[in-house]
Model the fold of this input.
Amino acid sequence: MLQLALVVVVLSVLIFGWLRLLPGGPVSALLGDRGTAESRAELTDALGLNDPIFVQYFAFLGRAITGDFGTSTGVSPGKPAMELFLERFPATIELSIAAILIALIGAIPLGYLAARRRGGWLDNAGVVGSMIGISIPIFFLAFLLKYILSIKLGWLPTGGRQSADIEATRVTGFFVLDGLLTREWDAAWDALEHLLLPALALASIPFAVIFRITRASVLDVMDEDYVRTARSKGLTRRIIRDRHILRNAMLPVVTTVGLQTGALLSGAVLTETVFSWQGVGQALAIGFERKDYPVLQVVIIAAAMAYVLVNLLVDLSYAVIDPRIRTAQKVS
Amino acid sequence: MGMALLEVRDLSVVFRRRGEEPTIAVDNISFDVEPGQTVGLVGESGCGKSVTSLAIMGLLPSRGAEVSGSVTFEGEQLLGLSQRQLDERRGRDLGMVFQDPLSSLNPVVPIGLQITEVLERHRRMSRKEAKVEGEHLLNRVGIPDPNRRLDEYPHQLSGGMRQRALIAIALACRPRLLIADEPTTALDVTIQAQILSLLSELVSGTDTALIMITHDLGVVAGLCDEVNVMYGGRIVERAQRHALFAEPRHPYTHGLLASIPRLDAPRGEKLVPIRGSVVDNIAWSRGCAFAPRCPNQLEQCWSDPPELVEDRGGMLRCHNPVEVAPLAAEGTR
Done:
C-alpha cells in the first residue's frame, strides 16, 4: 500500500512537471492558435499559473485527491475528465480480461505440452510462433486481423463494442456480462463478436511470453529431484503433472502474468485505436493528439495505480502458492 | 537358493548424446537380492551404482539412456514394462530413498500430502484413513509431533527430519524392496548414524530387502549382509560383509579400506589414499579399468580384461588379488 501511494505521488510530480515543460504550456494547449495576448494573460491568471510552482502543484494535488482532474478539452470537450475515465474504464477492463484469459487458457497448456514433447513439432512451432508473437508490432497484427477476418471475409465486425441495431441494457459497463445478466443473449453474442478480434490482437504478446515462460519453467521442473521422487512413488500421470510439475512451474508464470497484465494498457492504446474500441486506451491516443491534459493525467495516474495493484495481487497470490514465502513473511 | 526377490542379469546402461561418444555407465552387472537381505553397492562417484538403482526403478530418462539385460522382480521382468505398468509396482512393491532430502521433496506440497498420496494411490485409502496412517508412519520413523508435521512443508523440517519423511514415504506401502541411494551423504555425521540405525531397524525382522548404495564402507560395515564393490560400471568384488572386511581381495576394495581413518590405528600412521581418480580409467574392453591406479598391476592387466570368477566363497575380478590383508575395519563405526 505504501508502494502504491509512493508511485502515485512520484508519478503526479512527473506528470505535473512534464505539463509545465511542454512547449507552449497549458495555455497554448487550451487556447490553440486563437489566443490573443489579452486572453492568454487572463487565462494564465485564472489557471493560477502566476503562483509559485509548488503552490500550483499542491492545488492540483488537492483537487486530484477529491477526484477532480479538470475538464476534458479534446476527447470529449466539457466533460469532467474523471467522468470520462469512469465511463470508458470498463471497456478497457473487459478487453484486458478477455486478452489475458485467452493468453492464460491457451499458453499454459501449450507451454506444458511443448516442454513434455521437447523438440517435437508442437514445441518447434510454438517456439517459432511465440517469437513471431513477441516481435510482431501489435498495431500491425490488429490491422491484419481486421483486414482478413472483418473486411475480406466479413466474419466479424470491424470495430466498436456493439452493433448499432442492438438495444442492450447497461448494468455493469462490461457488455458481454451485461448481456448475460439481462438474458439478452443476442446482445451478449454480439458484444462477444466485437470483443474477439481486439482481444486476440491484444493477447498476442502476453500469449507468447506466457507460453515461453511456461515451457522453460516446466522443462526446469521436470528435471527436479522431487519429480523423480514422485515417479518413484508410482503416482498417476495426472497427479505428477498437476501437483508436482505444474504447481512448481507456475511460480515464475504468475510473476509474468502480473507484469503482462500491467503492460496491457500500452497494447490497449493501439488495439483500441484500430478497432474503435471506446476505452481509456483510445482516450489516451486521442488525448495526446488533441493535447487534452486533464484526460491524460487521469488516465496515466489510473494506469499506474492499476499496474501497482495488479502486481500487489501477484505478490499475494505468490504467497498462496509458495509456502516458503509465507513463512518468510511470518518471520519478518 | 530359491528364487531371488530381485535378479539383475547382465544389466547395462549406455548414455548416448548427440555428437558425443556413448558412455557406458553400467556394464553387464548381475546380482541377486533375497527377501529380507541387505545388499550393498559400493564405489566412488561415477562407478555406476546410482545409475543401476535408477535402471531397476525405471527412472532413467527414456531418451538418451539405453538399458539392456534383465531385471526380474518376483519373477516379473521389469525392463520391458511400460511406465504405466511400472507405476503399479513403484511406490508399492519397490520404494526408493534418495540422496538429497531437500531437493527430493516437493517444496510446495505439505509433507502430509506427500505421504498420503502414495497411500491413496496404492493402498486405496481415503484421504482420512491415509492421514491417520501418515501420522502413524511419521511416528514410526521417529518424527516427534507427527500430527503437526503433516501440515508442514519440507523447508520447515531439518535435514534429518526430511530424510526420515522420505523414508516414511518409501516405506508407506510396505515395499518388498527398498533402494536407498546414498541416503546419508547430504546429512551431518551425527544424523547419518541416526538415519542408518533407523533404516536397519525398519528393515530388520521384516522381509523387506534393502539395496544400500554408498561410497562409504562404514555404512556397509554396519548394515549390509552382502557387498558388491563396483568400479567403472562393473562389479569387481562380491563378498559377505565379514569376508570383505577381513580379507579384501581386490586391490580397489583394499585401497578403499586403507583410506578410511581408524581410531584403533597406531598414532602417526598415515592414511593411504588410492592413487589417481576415476578419470584415469581405461576401457574394460582394453584391460582392467582399475589398472592405471592399481598398486598390484601386472603387464597382463593392461591388455587382458579380467573376468568375474568365484573366489573364496565370493566373486572377484582381478588378475593379481591382494593375498594377506590384516585389516579389520569392521565395527569401527
